[in-house]
Inverse folding.
């Protein structure tokens, strides 16, 4: 996933211009809410609330999770943080009067408790046109479909088992004989349902991260949700790049599955993947 992505922030400001939409975000700060629960909070129609939610989703300020017939709305703070770092904080710093800094003593700022470092908290969702079994098999073949962000002469390698590694290595080499970069290690694996990796995913610096892929079957389609969280200092471009790149990564999985269906001539829900050993 490339960090060299500059988001279009105009939809964010347009979404925040409406007081009802700002109030909806305030509610979602306390946790995900269904559309019905949100509609009960505001003195307006359910249809009006749904229109506001559509604007917020288009701006990337919320993500939507479907659980059967229920629709859960989650706050996505990443675009707000990107906009704040890009516009609000630099401009606010310019408003300080020169006299405010006169006589200031250089040195560390007074401690008001542990400082919370800015990190990354991204959630993205995509519905693929395949059943859960085929989607799971394609997910574990991620080295075949993951959007390329590594240099020429290198390849992506993945070991789909508990304790298995994900990372880049030189063409013709394995992760054992490098050189390469370790992205993460499989810490949890539930066939057909969930894949969890712990690692930096290529984020530079002293960070700790985890990403989860969650599959939710819905008839002949499968909802694929990714949750990616990183603890540590992350620069603005990297944060924006991951926030915008994850939906494209999920779309690449969908395209890979469509290509397999065309090549095999099979129905999307017919399994074509071999049995796997998930042991360490």
């Amino acid at each position: 996933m490339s960090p060299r992505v500059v988001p279009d922030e105009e939809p964010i400001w347009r979404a925040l211009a409406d007081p009802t939409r700002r109030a909806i975000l305030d509610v979602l700060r306390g946790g995900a809410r269904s559309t019905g629960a949100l509609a009960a909070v505001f003195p307006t129609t359910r249809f009006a609330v749904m229109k506001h939610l559509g604007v917020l989703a288009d701006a990337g300020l919320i993500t939507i999770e479907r659980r059967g017939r229920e629709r859960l709305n989650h706050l996505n703070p990443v675009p707000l943080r990107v906009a704040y770092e890009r516009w609000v904080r630099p401009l606010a710093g310019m408003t300080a009067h020169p006299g405010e800094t006169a006589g200031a003593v250089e040195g560390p700022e007074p401690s008001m408790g542990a400082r919370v470092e800015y990190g990354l908290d991204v959630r993205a969702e995509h519905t693929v046109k395949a059943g859960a079994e085929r989607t799971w098999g394609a997910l574990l073949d991620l080295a075949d479909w993951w959007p390329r962000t590594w240099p020429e002469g290198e390849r992506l390698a993945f070991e789909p088992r508990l304790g298995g590694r994900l990372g880049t290595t030189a063409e013709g080499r394995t992760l054992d004989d490098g050189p390469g970069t370790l992205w993460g290690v499989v810490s949890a694996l539930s066939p057909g349902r969930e894949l969890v990796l712990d690692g930096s995913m290529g984020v530079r610096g002293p960070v700790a991260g985890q990403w989860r892929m969650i599959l939710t079957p819905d008839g002949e389609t499968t909802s694929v949700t990714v949750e990616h969280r990183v603890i540590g200092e992350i620069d603005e471009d990297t944060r924006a790049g991951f926030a915008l790149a994850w939906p494209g990564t999920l779309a690449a999985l969908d395209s890979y599955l469509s290509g397999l269906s065309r090549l095999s001539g099979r129905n999307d829900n017919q399994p074509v993947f071999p049995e796997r050993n998930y042991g360490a």
Summary: Residues 39 and 219 are 28 Å apart (CA to CA). The two ends are 27 Å apart (CA to CA).
